[in-house]
């Protein structure tokens, strides 16, 4: 699950400094990125014994994002377990990517995930805040 948090500073998690704004369940994330967009699946990338994990992660991220060059902000969410920050100045563009993508995808779950993300963007824009996306 990716959870959406509206906040002004992604480094401050004190009570009252963030608001939960929904999320994107694993099934919606998979339907969007793997099924609809055909993004690269990390489980298909062999790990080389003794290799720094950062090198493997970078290969997976690059392959994942190369499948959706027209959606660079959505592509930032390449790992369901990662954490991603979208500052206020990126939210209109992220929302626009969600709307463009929702026309492209036919899968209900993928579209639902995009709708949830677009709604979180709307709330954050209204509050003049950023959006922190956190995997669990």
Describe this structure in words.
- 46% of the residues lie in helices and 17% in strands.
- The chain is α+β, with helices and mostly antiparallel strands and 136 residues long.
- It has one domain (2-37, 73-135): Hypothetical protein yfbM fold (3-Layer(aba) Sandwich), CATH 3.40.1760.
- The model has no long low-confidence stretch (mean pLDDT 97).
Name a few traits of the molecule.
136 residues; alpha+beta; Hypothetical protein yfbM fold; four-stranded antiparallel β-sheet; 5 helices; 4 strands; 46% helix; 17% strand; globular
Number of domains: 1
What structural class do you assign from the helix and strand content?
Answer: alpha+beta
User: How large is the count of helical segments?
Assistant: 5
Number of strand segments: 4
Q: In what order do the strands lie side by side in the largest sheet?
A: 2-1-4-3
- Succession of helices and strands: EEHHHEHHE
CATH fold descriptor: Hypothetical protein yfbM fold
Question: Approximately how much beta-strand content do the residues carry?
Answer: 15-25%
Produce the secondary structure layout.
Blueprint: E1 2-7, E2 18-24, H1 26-36, H2 53-66, H3 72-75, E3 83-86, H4 91-104, H5 108-126, E4 130-135
Antiparallel strand pairs: 1-2, 1-4, 3-4
Helix pairs in contact: 1-5, 4-5
């Amino acid at each position: 699950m990716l959870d959406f948090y509206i906040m002004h500073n992604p480094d401050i998690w004190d009570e009252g400094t963030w608001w939960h704004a929904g999320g994107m369940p694993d099934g919606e994330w998979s339907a969007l990125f793997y099924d609809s967009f055909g993004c690269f699946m990390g489980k298909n990338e062999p790990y080389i014994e003794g290799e720094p994990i950062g090198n493997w992660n970078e290969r997976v991220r690059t392959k994942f994002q190369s499948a959706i060059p027209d959606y660079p902000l959505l592509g930032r969410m390449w790992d369901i377990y990662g954490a991603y920050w979208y500052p206020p100045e990126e939210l209109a563009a992220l929302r626009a990517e969600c709307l463009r993508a929702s026309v492209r995808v036919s899968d209900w779950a993928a579209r639902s995930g995009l709708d949830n993300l677009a709604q979180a963007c709307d709330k954050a824009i209204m509050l003049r805040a950023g959006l922190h996306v956190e995997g669990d």
